[in-house]
Design goal:
This is Transcription termination/antitermination protein NusA. InterPro entries: DNA_repair_Rad51/TF_NusA_a-hlx, KH_dom, KH_dom-like_a/b, KH_NusA_2nd, KH_sf_prok-type, NA-bd_OB-fold, NusA_N_sf, S1_domain. Participates in both transcription termination and antitermination. The longest helix is centred in the N-terminal third of the chain and has 27 residues. The chain has 18 helices and 20 strands. The chain is an alpha/beta fold. The strands form five sheets. A five-stranded antiparallel sheet has the order 7-6-5-8-9. A five-stranded mixed sheet has the order 15-14-13-19-16. Strands 1, 2, 3 and 4 form a four-stranded mixed sheet that branches.
Length: 503
């Protein structure tokens, strides 16, 4: 059992990087456990590794007594003096146990389990010390295998786990492929994998740009924020500490070479590079590009932005399934509500406000009614059923319900209606929650971003890369409803400017 033990300890310590002292302690503990399994747990056992002989020595200590009552803990004076002639009553006498190599199957199995357990603990500590300073960096590895959707990646000294939720959905790797990932977490005490990777977090995108763009690594260009929908689209905001360095151009690179390298690593994920601005109105104006923005209304207390865009730019501003405005909202950290110029103009009309003040009438329905000539709640209450069914494309039951609700609101708000008919603007109408943008204030013109317009384009691999500044916008400061997520208007078309990598 202990043949060439010293050589084995040295080899394991060298190959695994485990402290030799820890290995020796693990073996001593294993032998101690095995001896107690065979001889009983009440014995006073001491185990030592003899470096000179390269073997484990086991000593049993018993108390010298006149008459033995317990053979496991006591030894007679006569028997003790055979081992040590100078021993006296009451002394603790140590006796070396021979033939410990033959401990039996159960004891040997126990020793094996103890050694394995201690070695795993020691190896976990080595891995933790090795990788704890690399947490938050990009690591390279080879795909080893797959377990329940998780990818096991070999990093050389150990394996790491790339969970299913950390994998970009558009591409699958196969065994043996090389892969780069962000080291998200290094766990010290974990029975499973200690190293957790990710390719979907925002930090992975940021680190890739740091690797590709020297100006970022040098601190001249700074990444101010990032948001992603992994495998589909991402936005990253950049600023420059030096006026003569264009942050967008630095990230795009000559003919788009730098951003294209990042796009390829992310398997075709579109990346919008956005100039950062401390003014939230100008920031959202940049973040929603390539859509044009007519007006931005800022509610600093609620961290909310109402963005007004031309009617033909609405679907572009919102993006496919709300993707563009959703990413912009995450990038800025503010709630963004996008409205067309027509709808915003309607919201300013007092008659329109009476329509959306009616229960169960939302903005989409109010738009249809308003465009068809039903300009207020009074008009709706007196509308013809057949005409209403045709205009709103609803059935008779729904049309009757709307007329009744409108009539009830008209009856409950005579003063508001009277003010409307007199053309007075000071009256306010109580609208259904979430239907009306409230507030006041005078518009303030929004200057174009401070940085000079930048446009750079090129092609690589058949894809066009474009980065450009928007032209102009206007903004007003007003209050708008609170909320946590970006809103997209219903009925927006899935219209975007091709599949190129923008900004």
């Amino acid at each position: 059992m202990f043949t060439d033990l010293k050589r084995i300890i040295d080899q394991i310590s060298r190959d695994k990087g485990i402290d030799r002292t820890l290995l020796v302690e693990a073996i001593e503990e294993a032998v101690r456990s095995a001896v107690r399994k065979k001889y009983g747990s009440r014995r006073d056992i001491e185990v030592q590794f003899n470096e000179e002989l390269g073997e484990v020595e086991v000593f049993q200590f018993r108390t010298v007594v006149e008459e033995v009552e317990d053979e496991e803990t006591e030894i007679s004076l006569e028997e003790a003096r055979v081992l040590d002639p100078e021993v006296e009553l009451g002394d603790d006498l140590g006796e070396k146990l021979e033939n410990i190599a033959d401990l039996g199957r159960i004891a040997a199995q126990s020793a094996k389990q103890v050694i394995i357990h201690r070695m795993r603990d020691a190896e976990r500590e080595v891995i933790y010390e090795m990788f704890r300073d690399r947490q938050g960096t990009i690591v390279n590895g080879i795909v080893q295998r797959f377990e329940r959707g998780n990818m096991i990646v070999n990093l050389g000294r150990t394996d790491a786990v790339l969970p299913r939720e950390g994998q970009i959905p558009k591409r699958s790797f196969k065994q043996g492929d090389r892969i780069r990932a962000y080291l998200l977490e290094v766990r010290q005490d974990s029975r499973d994998s200690q190293l957790i990777l990710s390719r979907t977090c925002n930090e992975f995108l940021i680190k890739l740009f740091e690797m590709e763009v020297p100006e970022i690594a040098e601190g001249i260009v700074k990444i101010m924020g990032a948001s992603r929908e992994p495998g589909f689209r991402a936005k990253i905001a950049v600023s420059s500490l030096e006026s003569d360095v264009d942050p967008v151009g630095a990230c795009v690179g000559l003919k788009g070479s730098r951003v294209q390298n990042v796009v390829q690593e992310l398997q075709g994920e579109r990346i919008d590079i956005v100039p950062w601005n401390p003014d939230p109105a100008k920031y959202v104006y940049n973040a929603l590009a390539p859509a044009e923005v007519s007006m931005v209304i800022v509610d600093e207390d609620e961290h909310q932005l109402l963005v007004v865009v031309p009617d033909d730019q609405l679907s572009l501003a919102i993006g496919r399934q709300g993707q563009n405005v959703r990413l912009a909202s995450r990038l800025i950290g503010w709630r963004i509500d996008v409205k067309s110029e027509t709808r915003y103009a309607n919201l300013e009309d007092k008659g329109y406000q009476t329509l959306i003040a009616i229960e169960s009438v939302d903005e989409n329905l109010a738009d249809k009614l308003f465009a068809a000539g039903i300009r207020s709640a009074r008009d709706l209450a007196s509308a013809d059923i057949e005409e209403l069914m045709q205009l709103a494309m609803i059935d008779e039951e729904r049309a009757l319900e709307l007329k009744d609700l409108a009539a009830a609101w008209v009856a409950s708000a005579p003063e508001a209606l009277a003010a409307l008919e007199r053309g007075e603007d000071e009256e306010e109408f109580e609208a259904a929650p979430g239907n009306v943008i409230e507030g006041g204030g005078e518009p303030e013109p929004l200057e174009p971003p401070d940085s000079e317009g930048f446009e750079q384009s090129g092609t690589e691999g058949g894809e066009e890369i474009v980065a450009a500044e928007p032209d102009s916008a206007e903004a007003v400061v007003e209050h708008s409803p609170s909320g946590d997520s970006a809103q997209a208007e219903e009925g927006a078309l899935d219209q975007e400017s091709g599949d190129s990598t923008d900004r």
